[in-house]
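Hi U.,

Before I forget, here's the chain from the pilot set. I'm dumping it here mostly so it's searchable later in email.
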Amino acid sequence: MKSYKFVNILFILFSVVFTFSSCGKESDNSNEQFGSDNSKGNESVENKVIDDSDISDKSNLADGISDLKFGKGLVPSFLKGENQIIEAVSWNDKLGENLIVITLTDERIIKGDERIKELLIYHYIVKDTSSEVLWKSYDFVKDCPFDITLEFIDSSLTVTDLDGDDIAETSFMYKLSCRSDVSPDDLKLIMHEGQDKYAIRGEMILKINDEDPSPGSMIIDDSFNKTKGIFKDFAIEQWNKFNKVFIGEKYEK
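Structure:
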């Protein structure tokens, strides 16, 4: 048993080294023109909703926000590129008509054995005849010789008005790793209010069979200490809600 645990620790340490060298640091770019590679700024927003079969109206769930709707059908055709659309949400607030689109690329080869997978999230402000990007969030896993994990956490996309200023806060979570063994994924929570960004980063909880679960980790970005405490409280609540992964005889999310 001691030998098994020692070997397992070595594998985890080995995997962590590759994880740190292969997982990208998420970035934000504000006021860019359209996140889709093939699209340009000031395009028409006519026929914005092209498929309403996957739209959930939750207009009454957030104070200070109106017309809150979730669903991939909210994404207009001119914003649909080659990337897979994972989730979308739209609403109205003091900034105008908002649309967030979460996209994920397929895992692909860059050069030789170099592989990459990317997560891209865009926040659009939709106007009468045009749209502009309020912010873009980007992260990736690349140069990974093992298994690539980069996944949006289902149901983690939120739209709130915690401080009641009629400008929505949004948050979402995703996990990423490059690993060859049973070791915890990295976990990230990204929150915005307007162009202001806040983040929590760490490791997911991991349980192997009947062993005691790993505690995971949570590193709260200093940006949370420079804003309203209610934002930090909500982000920690979300983190604890979705940081639940067990691997072994029982598997839960």
